[in-house]
Structure formats: structure tokens, C-alpha cells
Specification:
Length: 461
């Protein structure tokens, strides 16, 4: 048996983080009869959605001693998924029509998300379980249980023992900075999207934005409002790609990826074009990091794969005492947190059993071998992409909860399709009225709503 493996049912659980994943985990553990303490180092629930105009002192986030700013949200951010597929299933993320301070758009501003999460926390009395301004600094197995050391705002440390710890600390805070040949001697400024807030500092500059998915598409257009020129480097595009995009500011180009950065200040793209740039903005993603976790070498992060982790949730030898909710990125996030946390709660209460550790390891080894055979790099282990719905159905079946509604998966697929084909206007122009109707009819049939939003399609439209 592993150092912290816990075959008996758990009575008290610690949850690290009061973002979306921590909130739903706290509710699910509580529903299964656990006493729950949620540790949250910030002052409010909401996690990365709590906007901070402050950014970190090191714009690339390379200095390990820098004070951390958790949020990666920029001022102009609106959700990149339509709200009806984003929310938890028994508490849909629908417009608050009675409250004019709220944003009722289908793709609302980032401020609407923490407001929704705070409504959720209030509705299910989760705030009562949260210890705010309390950071977990160490988690380690001791005699089949888990010792959690936390530090409060007065810098006072406390050690407590829990039957189980669920890690819900998020993974959009530690920048992944893509390597560019020659960048060491390139003289310009560099910043990661984690530290991007507003376009003002880029006024009249020539800016290169690396990455062209959700954040890259948004930030390039935000910066283009004030910059002289913005050039997007897109890894997914063919080497010859060079196109001026049709945007109102008329100063945005898309290129293939960067070939090299030069000491004269130029950035050369694989299409042969070169620009003299003032700033490079990296929209190149994030790394997993759990600085508080001490498992005596049992767990590690190798090339951004958190291992070993059965179905992205349980480390076999120390399960179910230690688990992770929210690791896989992209796609349906909150409903994934909900399904994963129902599984964790069911296992901890003893209602559902995990396979033996060696069986979980066999499964993991086979899944790693499959990724390798498919040519999928290690660092994409937790990027589920198209297989997310199969994964969620598998977990839902194991813990006996409702499968993901087909309309929800289709909303995500069509939403991401629009993001790619129409990055300028995908949040305000859509072609999925049929799915909106299906979603709201589903909410109504479950008596979760008593009204319809203004954008609900009238029949026959
Ligand atoms: P977080 O929200 O990051 O919460 C983690 C919490 O843990 C934080 O409150 C943090 O303070 C706390 N914490 C961390 N370490 C400790 C510690 N040691 N001790 C105590 N507390 C700790 N998803 C969507 O569904 N729709 C979108 O439109 C969308 N847009 C996004 C845009 C951006 C720019 C980014 C970066 C992500 C976006 N996402 C979106 C994905 C997003 O990850 C999820 O929506 C979700 O909010 C993440 O929740 P979480 O609880 O896993 O992490």
C-alpha cells in the first residue's frame, strides 16, 4: 500500500482552493456526509475570475520568488463559451434579469462569472466552509492520513490532519513561455498573457502576439486598438501564411510561427517576413504547479504531465486520500469539475470503489503508451479535446451521475468552431439557436428557471 492510501471511508476532507472546482467539490463532499474545510488564499470565492488590475513584477513569470497574482483575467475579457453550457448542471449560468448591475449577454464580461460563482456559493452555503486568506503551504501523507499546513494573513502556521485532500488550486497562473530561437539577445520587451491587463502600455508599438486561440485572438485585437501594428504568430498555420486581417483598426496581420528573433530587434517569421517589434506577448498557455505537495517523490510533473494520475484524478498509490479536480483543460470546464468531484465524493464516502492501485497503474501505463503511439506529446496528456465527452461519460457512469447532455457538448463544439472562424464577432453572432432552445427547454423541464433570456429564439424564427 502507498504512503497515504486510505481504504476506509473518509469523514473529513480538505479542499485547496475556492475557485469553481473547489466550490463544487466542497458541495459534493458535504453532500456525501464529509466535514469540509476549504482553504483559500484570497479574500473571496471565484478563483481566477477575480480580476486584479495588478500584475506580477516579472512579466514572464520566470522568477520563482516573485509574489504571485493568481488571476490571468484581462479587463476586456468576455467568456469564450456561451453561458448556457458553462454553468453547473443544477444551477445554470443564466442571466439575472432582475439585477441591472449584471451582464445578461450570452457571452458575458468576466465580472459576471465570479458573481455567478458567488451566487452558487451562497445558495449552497459553501462560504461557511471556506477559510479565506489562508494559504496551504504543505500537504503530506502521515500514517494513512494527510497533514495540511496552512498559513493565515497574520503569517501564523497551523498543522491539521485530514482523512482526504482534494487539490482544486487551478492551473492558469504559472506561465508556459514558448522558446524562440535567438530571443536571449533580442532587445525588446516580453510579457506573458498571465500579466496582460489592458492595451494602454502598447500604444504606438509594434507588437508580436504568439498564439491564436482564445487569449491570443482576444489580446491581439485588444492591443490593436492602440498599437501601431500587431502581428500574430500562429503555430497551427502553414509556413507560407501571411494575411492582413479585416479588422476596424486595419493594423493586424497573421503569420506562420516565428523562425527567429534577432539582436537588431527584428522578429523573423517562417513565411520569410520580418518586423521590428517593441514587444512580444506570449499567449502560449500555462504549466501545472503544486508547490505545497510533498509525496516523497511519488508524484511528479514531467513535461507538464502530472503523474501518475488515474483518469486525471487519483494518484494510484495514495488514492483516494489525495485527488485532483479540474486538471484537464479546455472544453466544458464547470460540468467536468462537477462530475469529477461527484466521483471523488462517492469514492471517499465508500459508495464507489476504485480499482486496486496496480490495476490503476496498468490502465495509466496503457493510456500513456497510447498517447505515445498516436504521437501526442507528454505535455498534452491533460488536453482532452475531442475525447472529453467520452471521458466525462466514463466518469459519470462510474459514479452513477447523469451523463453530459448532448446539447451541451454541441454548444461547446459549435462555439469553438465560431471562435476559430469568426474571432472578431463570435460572441455576438451565432448560428446555434436550435441548441439555445434545447438548453433552456431542458432547464425549464427541470424547473431550474422561471423565465427566458432576451436572446432565446422564438419558435419559427
Ligand atoms: P481557479 O479559478 O484558478 O481557482 C483556484 C483557487 O485556488 C484560487 O482561488 C486560488 O487562490 C486558490 N489557491 C491556489 N493555491 C492555493 C493554496 N496553496 N492555498 C489556498 N488557496 C490556493 N472556462 C470556461 O468555462 N469558460 C470560459 O469562458 C473560460 N475562459 C477562460 C479565460 C481565461 C483567460 C482562462 C485562463 C481560463 C478560462 N476558463 C474558462 C477556464 C477556467 O479555468 C475555468 O472556468 C475555472 O474557472 C477554473 O477554476 P479552478 O477552480 O480550477 O481554478
Amino acid at each position: 500500500m502507498g504512503p497515504g492510501q486510505n481504504p476506509i471511508s473518509s469523514k473529513n476532507g480538505a479542499v485547496i482552493g475556492a475557485g469553481a472546482s473547489g466550490l463544487i467539490t466542497a458541495r459534493e463532499l458535504h453532500r456525501e456526509g464529509q466535514t469540509v474545510v476549504v482553504f483559500e488564499r484570497e479574500k473571496k470565492v471565484g478563483g481566477l475570475w477575480i480580476y486584479s488590475p495588478k500584475s506580477e513584477s516579472d512579466p514572464l513569470g520566470l522568477d520563482p520568488t516573485r509574489p504571485i497574482v493568481h488571476s490571468s483575467v484581462y479587463e476586456s475579457l468576455r467568456t469564450n463559451l456561451p453561458r448556457e453550457c458553462m454553468g453547473f448542471r443544477d444551477f445554470p449560468f443564466v442571466p439575472c434579469v432582475d439585477d441591472f448591475s449584471r451582464d445578461s449577454r450570452r457571452y458575458p464580461s468576466h465580472r459576471e462569472v465570479p458573481a455567478y460563482l458567488q451566487d452558487f456559493a451562497r445558495e449552497f452555503k459553501i462560504e461557511e466552509m471556506v477559510r479565506f486568506e489562508t494559504e496551504v503551504v504543505r500537504v503530506e501523507p502521515v500514517d494513512g492520513k494527510w497533514r495540511v499546513r496552512s498559513k493565515n494573513s497574520d503569517d501564523l502556521s497551523e498543522d491539521e490532519i485530514f482523512d482526504a485532500v482534494v487539490v482544486c488550486s487551478g492551473h492558469y497562473t504559472e506561465p508556459y513561455v514558448a522558446h524562440i530561437p535567438g530571443i536571449k539577445s533580442w532587445p525588446g520587451k516580453q510579457i506573458h498573457s498571465h500579466n496582460y491587463r489592458v492595451p494602454g502600455p502598447f500604444k504606438n508599438e509594434v507588437v508580436v502576439v504568439i498564439g491564436n486561440f482564445a487569449s491570443g485572438a482576444d489580446i491581439s485585437r485588444d492591443v490593436a486598438k492602440v498599437a501601431k501594428e500587431v502581428h500574430i504568430a500562429s503555430r497551427g498555420s502553414e509556413a507560407s501564411t501571411y494575411e492582413k486581417l479585416s479588422v476596424p483598426t486595419d493594423n493586424l496581420w497573421i503569420h506562420s510561427e516565428i523562425e527567429t528573433a534577432c539582436d537588431d530587434g527584428s522578429i523573423v517569421f517562417k513565411n520569410g517576413k520580418a518586423v521590428h517589434a517593441d514587444t512580444v506577448v506570449y499567449c502560449t498557455g500555462y504549466k501545472y504547479k503544486f508547490p505545497f505537495l510533498e509525496t516523497n517523490g511519488y508524484m511528479s510533473i514531467d513535461d507538464n504531465r502530472v503523474e501518475p494520475l488515474y483518469k486525471h484524478v487519483f494518484p494510484p498509490a495514495v488514492a483516494p486520500g489525495l485527488s485532483f479536480v479540474g486538471l484537464p483543460g479546455m472544453g466544458i470546464q464547470l460540468v467536468m469539475f462537477e462530475i469529477q468531484s461527484k466521483w471523488v465524493a462517492a469514492v471517499l464516502s465508500g459508495r464507489v470503489t476504485l480499482p486496486a492501485p496496480e490495476k490503476m497503474m496498468e490502465d495509466l501505463i496503457a493510456s500513456y503508451a497510447m498517447l505515445e503511439a498516436l504521437g501526442i506529446p507528454k505535455r498534452h496528456t491533460h488536453k482532452l479535446g475531442k475525447i472529453q465527452s467520452n471521458y466525462l461519460d466514463w466518469v459519470a457512469e462510474v459514479c452513477g451521475c447523469q451523463l453530459v447532455e448532448p446539447w451541451r457538448t454541441q454548444l461547446v463544439d459549435r462555439g469553438y468552431g465560431r471562435l476559430v472562424s469568426n474571432p472578431e464577432n463570435y460572441r455576438d453572432e451565432w448560428d446555434d439557436d436550435d441548441l439555445i432552445k434545447e438548453a433552456y427547454e431542458d432547464f425549464a423541464s427541470k424547473k431550474l428557471i422561471s423565465f427566458l433570456p432576451s436572446y432565446f429564439p422564438k419558435s419559427g424564427r
